[in-house]
Amino acid sequence: MTLPEEPPLLTLISPTEGMTVRAGTPFLLQGSLTDSAGEPLADAQLTWSLGDVPVGSGWTCWTASEPGITLVQLFAYLGDELVARKYVRITVEGHDRVGDCD
């Protein structure tokens, strides 16, 4: 596979940096990979991980997590080559949370 002359643009749409979700409740992972003109790269492969644990692939996918600060990572491949990576940190609140005190 030949890579485009301009580097593709990887966008991590959801979740957003600092977002808070409930433990065990599915949340949406959504991203895109476009060329310099903003057109989606149909042959792109997107994979998702929470920390170092793979959780899915594709432009969108649903996942859930245990409580804590979680690193959501999005990797974009064209063929076998990693062309971009984005990440955000989210907070996953436990079911038994009582208040905002440490």
What labels would you give this structure?
Immunoglobulin-like, 5-stranded mixed sheet, 3-stranded antiparallel sheet, 8 strands, elongated
Task: Give the distance, in angstroms, between the N- and C-terminal Cα atoms.
Answer: 51 Å
State the name of the first-level CATH class. Mainly Beta
CATH superfamily assignment?
Answer: Immunoglobulins
The tally of beta strands, per DSSP, is 8
The CATH topology is what? Immunoglobulin-like
Structural class: mainly beta
Number of helices: 0
Shape: elongated
Largest sheet: 5 strands, mixed
Strand content: over 45%
Description:
The chain has a five-stranded mixed β-sheet with strand order 2-8-7-4-5, with no helix packed on it. It has one domain: Sandwich (Immunoglobulin-like). The protein is elongated. With 102 residues, the protein is an all-beta fold. It has strands at residues 9-14, 20-22, 27-34, 44-50, 53-57, 60-63, 68-78, 81-93. A hairpin with a 2-residue loop joins strand 4 and strand 5.
